Amino acid sequence: MTVRVRFAPSPTGMFHVGGARSALQNWIFAKQQGGVFVLRIEDTDAARNRPEWTEGILSALDWIGIARGSYEGPYFQSSYAGEHRAAAQRLYEGGRAYYCDCTREDVQARTGPQQRGYDGFCRDRGLEPGDGRALRFRTPDEGETVVVDLVRGEPTFENKLIEDFVIARGDGSPVFLLANVVDDMSMGITHVIRAEEHLPNTPKQQLLWDALGVKPPIWAHVPVVVNEKRQKLSKRRDKVALEAYRDEGYLADAMRNYLMLLGWAPSGDREIVPWSVIEEEFRLDEVNPSPAFFDEKKLRAFNGDYIRALPVADFVEACRPWLTGTETIAPPPWQPEEFDPAAFAAVAPLAQTRIAVLSEIVPNVDFLFLADPLIDEAAWAKAMKEGAADLLDAAIVAFEALESWDAESLKATLEAVGAERGLKLGKAQAPVRVAVTGRTVGLPLFESLEVLGRDRTLTRLRAARVRLV
Ligand code: GLU
Question: Does the C-beta of 8 come closer than 6 Å to ligand 1?
């Protein structure tokens, strides 16, 4: 039997990090089993049927390493509406489903507002199909439904506690539960690896598999992803869009490594491991069923490690989208013609050890490419205290006299200027840094001045001095 798994996102306009995690787990499982990964877009909700949203899913998958063309699909759930209806009809004709004309109010009037679920009122009324009549699945009165789940063992559900759930609405359209099962069936899916949120649907879905006469798949419900307050990650509250992380400058390799740690860990107390190790070692049955904490701080630190591990040339290349801007990344504050690749290459190794996400490259290097630095006024106020004017005057004179404009000479010079005033180097640097870069923090100062060059450095120091008059 060939293993066939599927990733079945509903288009929502963004790609949830939890979805990315499930996609990767499916992907790895298929690869390990010599199986097939199927992509199915669950687009039956017409309001969610936008082509650009599907495109967003494909490109997010691509970014995370599930390349277009290397899987089966995408299939679109909406194109199988006929099959969904036919299955509903089969269940009806086989006596496994019945029509029901109860409104929610009718049910509540009979059962009281406390009771949840349907009371089975229409079970034996023999209603014909008709406008406004929903089709309900007749769940067995007895027995249990045992779900075989690679992550959770064998969760067992008593059938009598499962209500007669709706499989097609009053207008005849099949609901998600049924469409999802019918598609999995016709696509030959052997293992359903998906988020824990769907576990409550699973006994119902398994009953549908049984009723339709096909052996159900093996399930794996991977843990829900939560924030630091243990709340399920929500797009209204949390940063959940994979695209947002991508555009902020998380590396795909860091991201997918981190995502795989949600509920699982590679051997040997390691967290940062090559993808090939994850592909080899990952086991669904080792996934911890408890909620998995998506720790953004940890991810950031992780990403910093990944950035530092890049060969410099790759780092330079990886920064490019932030240096130019793209469709989804804002352009930098300088004009394209102001950008100087040689100057960037000179400071790139310094920046590489200091940034945690690639977008941070821009505020670190903008002083090199802008005619005038962008002055952060709070930084200015902090650095340009008493004595700053005097220090700048002395620094200007000393720098003008420098024979060799290199980081070492610049440092020795400013150190001496500071010492004459009883200032440690750190204190002496502050006004110079703000005058030249506009900020109190940034790349190592003297290397920055070396790359910026004598004329531009002195021009900025003089301009700052004028402002202090
Ligand atoms: N379309 C469903 C969702 O996005 C997935 C259902 C499933 O994986 O079975 O939540």
Answer: yes
Q: At which residue do the structure tokens 């021009």 appear? A: 459
Q: Please state, rounded to an integer, the average pLDDT across all residues of the chain.
A: 96
Cα of 47 vs centre of ligand 1, distance in Å, is 16
Q: How far is the C-alpha of 464 from the C-alpha of 120, rounded, in Å?
A: 81
Of the residues 204, 229, 232, 235, only one is catalytic, namely: 235
The question of whether 235 is a catalytic residue gets the answer yes
Distant-in-sequence contacts of 393-397, Cβ < 8 A, 24+ apart:
393/465, 394/420, 394/421, 395/428, 395/432, 395/461, 396/458, 396/461, 396/462, 396/465
Structure tokens at 275: 């993808």
Backbone angles phi and psi of 150, in degrees to 5:
-65, -25
pTM over 0.90: yes
**pLDDT mean over 73-77:** 96
Q: Which domains does the chain have, with CATH numbers?
A: 4-75+178-222 (3.40.50.620), 85-168 (3.90.800.10), 372-467 (1.10.10.350)
Which residue from 38, 292, 323 is spatially nearest to 186, judged by alpha carbons?
Answer: 38
Q: What are 47's two structure tokens?
A: 């309001």
Q: Using a 6 Å cutoff on CB, does residue 25 contact ligand 1?
A: no
Q: Which helix (DSSP H) or strand (DSSP E) does residue 454 occupy?
A: helix 454-467
Q: Do the bridges between strand 72-76 and strand 97-100 make them parallel or antiparallel, or are there none, so unpaired? A: unpaired
Q: How many CB atoms lie within 10 A of CB 230?
A: 9
Q: What is the CB neighbour count within 10 angstroms for residue 112?
A: 8
User: Measured in angstroms, how far is the CA atom of residue 252 from the centroid of ligand 1?
Assistant: 23
> What's the 8 CA to ligand 1 centre distance in angstroms?
5
> Comparing C-alpha atoms, which of 56, 60, 68, 77 is closest to residue 22?
60
Q: Would the pLDDT of 155 be above 70?
A: yes
Sheet containing 4-7: order of strands: 72-76, 36-41, 4-7, 191-195, 218-222
Please give the torsion angle defined by the CA atoms of residues 397, 401, 406 and 408, in that order, rounded to the nearest 10 degrees: -70
Note the pLDDT of residue 48. Answer: 66
Q: Omega before 74 cis (within 30°)?
A: yes
Give the DSSP per-residue string, 192-243. EEEEGGGGGGHHHHHHHHHHTT-PPPEEEEEPPEE-TTSPBP-TTTS--BHH
